[in-house]
Design goal:
Number of strands: 0
Radius of gyration: 17 Å
Shape: globular
Distance between the termini: 52 Å
Oligomer: single chain
Structural class: mainly alpha
Helix content: over 70%
Number of domains: 1
Number of helices: 7
Strand content: under 5%
């Protein structure tokens, strides 16, 4: 079991460390990052119960499951927890902080989800789990956090628009990811790898832009 836990959690910790250290100016307190990560771990339990209930009680189409029961539902709960545990906190004091906290929560969720998956299907699945769902959760978190970071230092209509983007853009991307996995079948990897390359390009671009936003924000102070 220890081997399963290590294989399940190690990719998430590596990705979290990567994005945490991408903050070029002022890294966040580790205590806050760990707390948000633990919230992500705990989120797995209500998500599993509620998604199971939806799937058992409702006869839903595959695209509804991909975009709403999984994509929007999961990303909304992540967004809600990041908003109330970090966004409103005094330590959230620069644009890149959104990426740190959203990624921490997403990777907490991915860690425990991965433990359950590898416990069921075997440690031999660890490589593909790290490459696809764990990385996917991290990158959805990056994109969510980028727009939360911008919203924190905006006002009025622009702030509301950025808050909406911080929820609905990662939810949409999560839904597309799920839909590809559900429909590609034998060509799954040929279909999903280009999408993951796009996600990494988009996520790293948001990391760069968030660091640049800090410079612009400070120059206005």
């Amino acid at each position: 079991m220890l081997a399963v836990i290590s294989a399940a959690v190690a990719p998430a910790i590596a990705l979290l460390s990567f994005f945490y250290l991408k903050d070029k100016y002022e890294t966040e307190p580790l205590s806050m990052v760990v707390r948000v990560y633990l919230f992500g771990l705990l989120l797995v339990f209500p998500v599993m119960v509620l998604q199971y209930g939806f799937e058992e009680e409702l006869h839903i189409a595959g695209w509804v499951k991909a975009f709403f029961v999984s994509g929007l539902f999961e990303e909304f709960l992540k967004w809600f927890l990041v908003f109330y545990s970090a966004y409103l906190h005094a330590e959230f004091n620069e644009p890149y902080d959104g990426i740190v906290y959203s990624t921490a929560l997403s990777l907490g969720f991915a860690s425990l989800e991965n433990v359950f998956y590898l416990s069921t299907y075997g440690i031999q699945e660890a490589f593909w789990r790290a490459l696809l769902p764990v990385s996917g959760h991290a990158l959805f978190g990056v994109i969510m956090g980028y727009y939360l970071g911008r919203a924190k230092f905006s006002r009025g209509k622009k702030q509301r628009m950025l808050l909406l983007l911080s929820l609905f853009l990662p939810a949409l991307l999560h839904g597309v990811y799920n839909y590809i996995l559900m429909t590609a079948q034998e060509d799954m990897f040929l279909a999903i790898i280009p999408f993951m390359v796009f996600l990494w390009w988009l996520g790293l671009r948001k990391v760069k832009l968030a660091n640049e936003k800090r410079v612009a924000y400070l120059s206005r102070q």
